[in-house]
Design brief:
Length: 328
Amino acid sequence: MIPYSLLDLAPVPQGSDVRQAFANSLELAQRAERAGYRRFWLAEHHNMTGIASAATAVLIGHIAGGTSTIRVGAGGIMLPNHSPLQVAEQFGTLASLHGERIDLGLGRAPGTDTATARALRRYFNSADAFPQDVAELLHYFQPAQPGQAVRAVPGAGIEVPVWLLGSSLFSATLAARMGLPFAFASHFAPDALDEALAVYHREFRPSARLREPYAMLAMNVVVADSEAEARRQFTSQQQSFVKLRRGELGLVPPPVDDIESWWTQAEKAGVERALAVSAVGDAEQVRARIAAFVERYRPDELLLTANLHDHAFRLASFDRAAEVMRSL
């Protein structure tokens, strides 16, 4: 059985609020733990009212404190928004509190719009220094040396698994050359998936952190009693995707019965391309879709996600998805 994990954005549905979103995420993590998910990851986004995971390290602490066995981490921390030292201290703190259950995934995108990126970084000069920042961060997790002027406290000497995240050849190449596990954002940007995987495996260099390449691929998964209901629930995520590109930021919308009358043909084509790595339907349909994806790409692990409006349905869908994964 291929390991399966869950990516959450702490979605804030219309009619709800941030406090409830955090309670929902904790309940989802607890259900995921019981259902055999290996990891529960949260992603950093800013200035998006429908996503409440901006203070990602804080929320990871909330989730880890309410669970006991599932790994909890960032998928990911957008490193150009932070100093490497601060990230090392935050995740050194989390690992000190929660032991070996903490993961740190790193991305180089801002996770927001340009104006907010500038507000976050203060002295904005793009993500060009990402490789150097990753190296600096890894250095802070190493045991402190005598006379070392700057150290992460806590952080130095703490084993925090570090992943690189991405949707391009840049991150795949960097992960390979640094000997780090790689997670590809195929759930919303699948265009470079084939080439990125090939580059990662071809150029991988063993490191003290990882002896062989390890690739995790993300997939949107929605499972219901019927294909019609699954596709209806998925319209919440489709609408959010279109509204983001329209510049209409807001809370996660409820599903609609007729998505075809809601979007334009150009918007539909864009969504279908971006969300092509999706398994939406009843259990048998989802099983067939996932099995075909795994057969083609041979991932070491799958990262399942679905940014839906209906929390009760979302819980049930991820339970069903776990049953599907165990049956593969």
